[in-house]
Specification:
about 50 residues, 1 helix
Length: about 50
């Protein structure tokens, strides 16, 4: 592998890794934030009034 090919492969792999991490971070925020809020609200009995 020549230097240019290696650099191109490295840039492609880095961009794919950044894409995967970004998607998983967004999914974690979108699903985790409402779930965390629901758990805290039910724990302190504001949401369900148990």
């Amino acid at each position: 592998m020549q230097g240019q090919e290696l650099l191109q492969s490295l840039l492609q792999a880095s961009s794919e890794t950044f894409y995967m991490v970004s998607i998983s971070t967004l999914v974690a925020i979108v699903l985790g934030l409402p779930l965390g809020l629901l758990l805290v609200m039910t724990f302190i009995r504001i949401f369900l009034n148990l």
